[in-house]
Amino acid sequence: MRGLAGKTVIVTGGAQGIGRAVVDRVVHEGGNVVIADCHAEFGKSAAQEADEIAGRPAALFVHTDVSDEESVRSMTEKTVEHFGGLDQLVNCAAVFIMRGLEATVEEWRRIMDVNIMGQALCVKHAAPHMRARGAGSVVNIASISGHIAQPGYLTYNATKAAVANMTRCMAMDLAPDGIRVNAVNPGTVWNKNNERFHREQLGMDRAEADADPEIGGRHMLGRTADPEEIASAVAFLLSDEASYITGENLMVDAGYTAM
Ligand SMILES: NC(=O)c1ccc[n+]([C@@H]2O[C@H](COP(=O)([O-])OP(=O)(O)OC[C@H]3O[C@@H](n4cnc5c(N)ncnc54)[C@H](O)[C@@H]3O)[C@@H](O)[C@H]2O)c1
């Protein structure tokens, strides 16, 4: 894909799930990647495997808490020291505190700190380095959950709706610097954590979840997504193939929100 080779990309939440698939795709396309995640064990192994995919030292793990501004500042500085600059950012890290009106103040603060402020802090500290390059691209990971109501999901869905509109505001503020900002809104993604949830809580494997009218059946294509299918959309929006796209919320949901 045009405009990814040789680029340096920060992927928050890159140790697992969708972020991990984005890391692998970026290095496969010839980019360098910083995995900014709070899970040290998975982050280090993700970096090792990304180096193997690339066949060169392409990945750096930096232990990061995106809700802590000093941690984000230090992570962006380490990125620039290590790779000589920064071109692109993927805001993937999130916590899944699914609560309704019963949510405590502490639960509200935690999910807003990570899912909303965490994305804003990463853009705040990445943008000056992109501005120094004269161009940049940011992809925020939002969700179908930011556009619909789901039972008992008040806290999470509020944060994802915030990401959808922060994306438009950031795009407007950063356009004069040649920095594009877009969001990818995935449907249900079959990652390891979702696999465990469906097995332990619902007694379902993937085939059963895909066949269930309330899970796979909520998507027009009748199935959940592989993380790599989300990573493809992220790679497109990062790349020069999307050079005339900014402020966009791309639904990557097999038609879930079109029904
Ligand atoms: N899985 C889905 O079905 C789905 C659907 C729509 C949107 N999303 C969104 O996609 C993104 C990735 O989700 P996933 O399912 O791959 O999740 P995941 O749990 O597999 O990965 C999330 C990663 O974020 C990291 N993280 C959490 N808090 C952090 C913090 N404070 N600082 C740094 N890292 C932190 C975790 O360690 C983990 O590696 C999230 O933004 C999520 O809201 C997921």
TrEMBL record:
Family annotation (InterPro entries): NAD(P)-bd_dom_sf, Sc_DH/Rdtase_CS, SDR_fam
Alphabetical keyword list: Oxidoreductase
Any one GO molecular function term: oxidoreductase activity
PROSITE patterns in alphabetical order: ADH_SHORT
Keyword Oxidoreductase set for record: yes
Pfam families assigned: adh_short_C2
PANTHER family tied to this protein: DEHYDROGENASES, SHORT CHAIN (PTHR24321), ESTRADIOL 17-BETA-DEHYDROGENASE 8-RELATED (PTHR24321:SF8)
Family: Belongs to the short-chain dehydrogenases/reductases (SDR) family.
Protein name, entry field: Oxidoreductase
Species of provenance: Streptomyces fuscichromogenes
